[in-house]
Q: What sequence folds into this?
């Protein structure tokens, strides 16, 4: 089976066999693989589009984050579509798994171009999707945003970032790696530094140079300590308010290394003293509720390093579902 | 050596060799195995009775929770009887390890009947015990309560539950598994839905059907978010107050999957965004202090999945000791 | 999608998405899931039929062997259909994944009956299949053979077993567990003790009682030491020769615990001093070549206990492919 | 290469090769190994002196804490010298890695004497150092303090301790093990019980005897529950205030077992219900800011038990850097 | 309960509860703990005496080998007393678990003296025991032999050693560590170098100095390569023949690091290219059959480093049972 | 410190601090880092040159093989220079650690060019070195050979390969990945197919296409089964004999995935049924003894996936030392 987005986007490598009954309780019963659709037209109004971005050879440190899209899909079986906290059922959203961006083994530039093309293709095909990019490492964010920009050149894009790092390293050193996405976007003129908001940095994980570059470019950031003091939800809301006065579209990027390493054994770059799971979920829910947040990604989660019961993979999926809960609450509110 | 409760209850498979001195500092020096007692009569007034319930083949997912009773006993060596927080010494309570319920390899119905029989036998032999059931998976709770009910048919039983799930699945689907104990008790008429209080649910771990069934039956529940807002201790107290106006005996069941998976790598069903250890201990202590709480169990902890230094096994034992601290504080208060 | 063998056999829970090209290089591109077939009739001549048997709650020790059928299917991606050693391409065989036997959570007797029914259904539907049962624990073997017998009551069945144990425990003790399949078959009259040949036992893993029962019933066995002295291949050939003079059909059962524990970290019952991988593969290849070997199973492999790079899961799949290599070599020889 | 402190202190076993540029961004580019210095005189004013103390055969339980000094040095590469939270760059401090105290395999008394000698040698050589002892198990604290006392006999020493235990066990039982350092110091008259402040104890990890001994000797302690109620920072400040009115020098000892075991899988003696990482860092920062805190150690962290991504080793290093951040903030404040 | 060998030997820390039936199938039902015996006199004729020697703080590298005696006893449950390979039932031997040598935390010299005393006490009490020392690290071997010598000063002792190392390091460097036992025995005059036979060395794991010392003292050794060429069994027999012409008693010491590291993940000093399990068992069986082999030990097995399914602990126990099989075969042969 | 080969080759990132005595017993005391040399001229005659090649982002599957050069150097401490099997001391060879090839994060082509340049630089600077390339993944082999060829264009190069795969994949698909090195060399005309000898393939790990390509190009290969039948040493000798009649220089490449996965948990591409450690060491020793073998590499060993006691890293180092043993034996023989 191939998808109508092929060859820009490969269909997912496997699909869950649906139960006869058609009753939807679990996430794997809800999200349709693109290969299951016979009619491309019918798919245009899909509300949520998932795009796997299995690239991590662009990571500074050796990474298996490329395995997350597959692990993510496998994990669906363990999650209900119903969210008890907020009494919403995600299965009321239409959601499509568009598959994975094709990757090349030794040509990283080509991989990056493929991501741009795929992200653009999604914008082109779907009328008003909320796009969820499943990384991969953080280098993909710059490409996802560029692809989005390509199709919507007149819309200003802002970024809300959960991260332990600035990701503003100089691309001259090592090209568009997972340490550079934000700088990449600034330097390419796609996003202005002042339209970037980073929450969660702390400790000894950014050199002084980067901080100075951030200040120069007007990048906004709230350390975890500052965000905790103000309240995570309140901090997110403040960022979104400021952003939404300046941009048309907000892109949410969740670098899982923002988490405390005790909560994220499958994220080698996570650190002691990072966010708790509760805090991250609180932040992501708040972001999902904002009407301008039209895309998000989850990056730097390496399932090969996760411990036996896969706490980090589960958390990655929980982040995704929590974001969509925000989307549903926003839609309900607007109805 | 056999126990006077044999064959309903097997003696523990091993016993700690006591030091000559007789001085009690550690838990393994305090809790007496039932085989060491020559006089059944003398044991009648035992305040705390431990019952191992090594059954987990009734779990929906493959589980080694049947290994917890043995791991629990081995861990005693690492715990003092003295609780510094509350300045009480648990060794002032009399405590007896009654051993394990006999299990059958391929007849789960027989296993369940054996648990009922053993729970009843404990009620029969001891005059006023606080019973601690060490699971095993959650299916055992229905049987423990039924056994208790068998011996005390006139006493109304209520349940306080820490759990990420309702455990109200339909028994027609797969019999009395670890997903059904609460429904089992409702349908058998042993406990009314309105006398069940569940604390700790959150996220995407219960289907909508179950929520609707819960509402129908009047099952009470506080999501983790709600409980945190009110305070864990305050939530527990409120539940106990309500319960104690309606029932004679309160049974506390601690499904360890209520915990955040970062705190419980040995509980595969635990989830991201669950309770912290601190919160669970706070809740269990409050429960132990209530005079109507006459039995408890700890379930769904799989030592085979725990990490090297056994954080989850230790936490299971800590939960048990914290509950008994509540019991002692209650007794001191009532003296 | 459902299968024409449903409800006796559930379709596999997921399917690999096929490449457009239709070119077959890897195992997951070769073996067709039953759900992909629109025409049941066309499937009748399938040469190889895979049947998942995800049952391990019947294990004496807590086991996750029920997870092997899914892990087995996932592993296909890492294996070519071409066997360089023997210069054969397995893709010349037609192979069908019939899916999994439906299981019940708390009624093990029902699970066992379902296996019998499914095994019979396979015999009924396919004209002359080589059946590969993917366990699950060893209790399934008795059921697989019974199902086969049900459809072919006039054909005498013999068994070739690789195992560290007799599996002749008394069913009165704990029912039809993973310790009893051979006794089960003897006592039910389906297979005579003298038509059972066991290779690989050693050391301290069988009680004397069992040896005496084996001798009484005429069960044949070669300790690993004896088999090594004679040669593994030669031992297998000798067993098959003897068997084939006495029976119509030979069933091969591979209890992965026959392996040395260094080679099988995912088989908790494997032991120090067991078979090497090389020896087992040599034995299985020889078995596959024999024309009367019409069915086989692989049991007691617990993927949850396997180490990070999954050596045991890979070995399980390798055993399966090696057996089929034998089948192909036999067919080529007979052409 | 040997160091001018040799043979009292061995040089570190390996050194990072410095980049040509001389630019300092990361911790391994900042801290100079003592072997890199050709002029001992020039080193006298070093502000921070690191002393590895690789001894853990004195632990009650088998421990690999002796491996922490090497793991600690290896981890430097992952940490920037710049602290974003407080906008300070640690590289403005001069810091020297003095190497490791020489240890003997079978003579623990000699190991302890070597620590005393090395600690004294540091005091002797450097004019006003902040000393960071990298353990090793907790038995080293008594020796570090004794060595300091030897060179400064007229200065009264007080201790601030983060710990889950009193460490007041009777030395008559098993000599100066990791269970005795505080008693050792009391009994040897080097530190008075009333000048000891312990923060973080809780639960069932100290016998009643020890509590009584602590009370007798006037040892001050705040349980974790009490410290949380008051605020960790406030508790530390209160302890330091009291201490600083009574003593000349304050020695900070961080037993990593004060942490919740979920945060510290590489500390086997850590417990459920202990401190979070955030709390410990808050406490250590406050301690570092106090002008009388002139020495600290980090003990009981066993890298051999840590999980794959080394959360505990990273946390140990983070604690060290956070302490130095306190030192820098204090110096800035005093300028 | 205390033992009549107390205080020289502590009773085992725990005991298995015996089944009512008295029927012996498994090892834990066979070996009696010394505490269960009411009559010291009756015990004098015990054929096999087990002595736990939980010391590993004398190891050069951090080791948890002190935990093996407890892990060894726990593993008994998984082993039958019946050996199918040789058709013997070990339960025909009388076997007693004498418990553990008392250890001191910080005085290693005292630990070593305690081992000497305990080994002597065993010789004193029992009339003609086969002694099995369960280590602990290799330093204990020198002490075990010295204790034996103390009670039998007129009997010449020889040593058969399976090891990857000479264990002839200079005691002046670091005292009687696990690198020195053979040198210790030579220098103390208890065993002559020419009465030592070492099998299994290979590769890059001994410095040239040690080889020269060995040659000087006439220590005999067969590299693994040489032993394989000749045959392991034949090599052992040749060693025993030579030895038995020169000494009265042969002591077998099995350093588990002789194994290939793939077979012994719980022995950190094991190496690539070492013995297979099969080879070691073959060698140990041959040793057990020799009438002059009156004592043995198993050392350097660290259960804390073993992988999940405990292959190394199981192998340690298998070595012990295989040795006793040799003893039984010898006795049968001599009857 | 920088090296005279900089910037083509970075110095090693750390160096072991040498003991004062200058006595060489262990490998880390023997191999000099290039930064320790003040006189480039003096280094020209170095017999053994080590070149780290930390590249694995060119791997088809996510790999951390880039971490092996550092892990390799760290492991030196555990190895003596003396080889007991062959009674040779490697420290009689002069050996230099030239450091690591500089790598780029996102430009793999540049990484590959850097390897070519570095390999050429080694040939240029040293007069007659035996070069040991420490990978990295298998893509590096093509570059190492190309670099060598660049400096010695008139010398014909042949290859001896231990591998489970042909590594002859089409470069058009995914560029010069770890699946292509042999094809790369054939297509670039640097090595003829008929001058390639591959030992160790087996099972289902090569597609039929690749076998056909190999046959077309005259690539020679011995399956593991064939090599075992003939003898590993004899097979290697036969290959070398044939090769040496055709080429001037032989390059040995050891893809660690040739090993059975039980021996190599840190090589995810290793397979069930592969070589044992003993067999590989036997083969490598034989290769080292041949005078035309002037270079070798070790690839595809991923230390991040290794188990706790690092069996695979140790094995990698053992392979290297065994190769050098061959070199020494050859030199001794030729003197």
A:
């Amino acid at each position: 089976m191939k998808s109508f987005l092929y060859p820009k986007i490969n269909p997912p490598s496997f699909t869950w066999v649906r139960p006869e009954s058609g009753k939807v309780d679990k996430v794997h019963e809800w999200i349709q693989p693109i290969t299951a659709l016979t009619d491309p037209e019918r798919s245009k109004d899909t509300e949520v589009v998932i795009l796997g971005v299995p690239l991590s050879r662009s990571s500074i440190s050796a990474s298996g984050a490329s395995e997350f899209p597959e692990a993510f899909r496998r994990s669906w079986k363990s999650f209900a579509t119903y969210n008890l906290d907020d009494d919403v059922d995600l299965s009321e959203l239409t959601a499509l798994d568009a598959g994975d961006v094709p990757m090349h083994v030794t040509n990283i530039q080509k991989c990056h171009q493929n991501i741009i093309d795929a992200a653009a293709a999604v914008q082109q095909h779907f009328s008003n999707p909320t796009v969820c990019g499943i990384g991969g490492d953080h280098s993909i964010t710059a490409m996802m945003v560029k692809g989005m920009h390509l199709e919507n050149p007149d819309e200003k894009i802002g970024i809300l970032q959960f991260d332990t790092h600035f990701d503003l390293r100089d691309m001259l050193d090592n090209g568009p790696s997972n340490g550079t996405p934000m700088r990449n976007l600034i330097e390419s003129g796609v996003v202005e530094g002042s339209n970037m908001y980073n929450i969660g940095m702390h400790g000894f994980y950014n050199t002084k140079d980067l901080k100075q570059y951030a200040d120069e470019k007007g990048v906004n950031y709230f350390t975890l300590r500052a965000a905790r003091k103000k309240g995570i939800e309140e901090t997110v809301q403040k960022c979104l308010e400021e952003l939404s006065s300046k941009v048309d579209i907000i892109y949410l990027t969740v670098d899982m290394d923002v988490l405390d390493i005790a909560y994220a054994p499958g994220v080698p770059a996570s650190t002691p003293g990072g966010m708790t799971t509760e805090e991250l979920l609180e932040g992501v829910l708040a972001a999902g509720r904002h009407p301008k947040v039209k895309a998000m990604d989850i990056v730097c989660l390496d399932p090969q390093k996760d411990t036996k019961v896969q706490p980090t993979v589960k958390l990655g999926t929980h982040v995704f579902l929590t974001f969509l809960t925000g989307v549903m609450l926003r839609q309900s509110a607007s109805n």
In short: The interface with chain C takes residues 25-27, 79-85, 87, 89-90, 262-263, 277-278, 281, 307-309, 311, 314-315, 318, 321-322 of chain E (CB under 8 Å). The mean pLDDT of chain E is 96. The two ends of chain E are 38 Å apart (CA to CA). Residues 311-334 of chain E form the longest helix (24 residues).
